[in-house]
């Protein structure tokens, strides 16, 4: 199993219909490729965790990198893992999460999303925060 976490900036002209299109396409592709994960939408950024086989995760990430609605994409973490940690989420989305948890998480995530470089402590902390949002 392989996980990849990235942060990206939204383009200035990003609209709600862009978000709907991204989610629809991601859920379809992720189901097809065996990818699970979570996408958190922030006012100006995205943070996403993807997991699956390394080749499928990297293929999916390359598609994301080609999407002009994302800019300044920074990989926070890319590593092999023992097992899936978000196995029931073809593509979890921040709006589907508990609002009280999400509000607190967004404050933290928004601060991190402004960074260009991440320490190991930042990487692991963000991973734990994203995982904590997905408890079912």
Report what the structure shows.
This protein is 44% helix and 26% strand. Strands 4-1-3-2-5 form a 5-stranded mixed β-sheet, with helices on both faces. The two termini are 21 Å apart. With 136 residues, it is of the alpha+beta class. α3 runs antiparallel to α4.
- Written as H for each helix and E for each strand, in order along the chain, the element string is EHEEHEEHH
| CATH architectural category | 2-Layer Sandwich
Specify Rg, calculated over alpha carbons.
Answer: 14 Å
In the CATH scheme, the class would be Alpha Beta
* Shape summary: globular
CATH topology: Alpha-Beta Plaits
Poorly predicted runs are none
**SS content category:** alpha+beta
E-strand count = 5
Beta-strand fraction estimate: 25-35%
Distance between the amino and carboxyl termini:
21 Å
Domain count: the total is 1
Helix content: 40-55%
